[in-house]
Amino acid sequence: MTDDRWIRRFVPSPEAATRLVCLPHAGGSASYYLPVAKALAPKVDVLALQYPGRQDRRDEPGLTTVADLADGVFDALRPWTDKPLTIFGHSMGASVAYELTRRLQEAGTKPIALFASGRPAPNRTREDNKTYLLNDKDLTAEVKALGGAGSHLLDEPDILNMVLPAIRTDYQAAETYKWTPGPKLTCPIHAFIGDADPKVNADEARSWSDHTTGEFSLQVFEGDHFYIDKHAPAIIAAISARIDQAAR
Prior knowledge:
Blueprint: E1 7-8, E2 18-23, H1 34-40, E3 44-49, H2 66-77, E4 85-90, H3 92-106, E5 113-117, H4 136-146, H5 157-175, E6 189-194, H6 202-206, E7 216-221, H7 227-247
Parallel strand pairs: 2-3, 2-4, 4-5, 5-6, 6-7
Antiparallel strand pairs: 1-3
Family: Belongs to the thioesterase family.
InterPro entries: AB_hydrolase_fold (IPR029058), TEII (IPR012223), TesA-like (IPR020802), Thioesterase (IPR001031)
Protein name: Surfactin synthase thioesterase subunit
């Protein structure tokens, strides 16, 4: 039985040989990955995750730990593991993606690859982030400073009131995440960052290599935390190429 609360399949591609699982950033939603689903269909079946506390799940309480998010995603994905999975996460989504991949591996499902975007490696998570404790005005200012598609909508009071609770719980999950040592992943890890991202530098991103026995690569793009908005075609092409490589 599938849990339809979590998974959005915007462009169903039942004939695809593989699936791509996309994990949103803090405050983000599944719809952020609609362009990815359109770009990769019908070759890849894209599953975009919808966390509690936003859009059509607005009435559900948000989850305040990465572990709880990863557990929820893992349970929802169980019916979808009949085909090989590739995992992608941006920002907080990269931490969720990593913890999800750990759970999948432990359960006997080895993803094709993990793509970690805009996030320090799990053992390099910064200790001084307490954004989630800010008042509403300062938290909003912090989110707007990072930019990203749609951040201007936070100027609308009605929209802000709708999305701010999810932003706060997501930031709490991202900023309180603590890595616990365990078996390394065996799938490749490919890290992406922007060269002007205040949330992660190249050294922190290279440490993703500490978390796998497989291949590692780091690709640096021009841009800030939401460099992926500008470079989406290149990132989608890189993911597609890795999926093709695994198929060969």
